[in-house]
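Q: Okay, next protein. This is Conidiation-specific protein 6 from Triangularia verruculosa. I've checked the sequence twice, so it should be correct. Can you predict the 3D structure?
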Amino acid sequence: MPTDAQIAGGHKANLNNPNTSKESKENSQKILDNEFNGGDVPKASDTKDKNPGNVAGGLKATMKNPNVSDEAKKSAEERLNNM
């Protein structure tokens, strides 16, 4: 089941999508305003409900990806070392 943050995120994405209708955007804005405090919903923390093995695997993949900047690789390495 999606979280409130995921639902609100979908509506926010709809508002910024040039391929959706005006009516759809109005509906998403109405839902955000009425049910999600304008889209201001709490986010999941960096590690809450995440599998640490998957997080570590993603960080390792970032460090080996040639399309990732050196700065991002260094950040991933630091995060991995702090786990």
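A: Here is a summary of the prediction. The radius of gyration is 18 Å. The chain has four helices and no strands.
Q: Noted. On to the next one.
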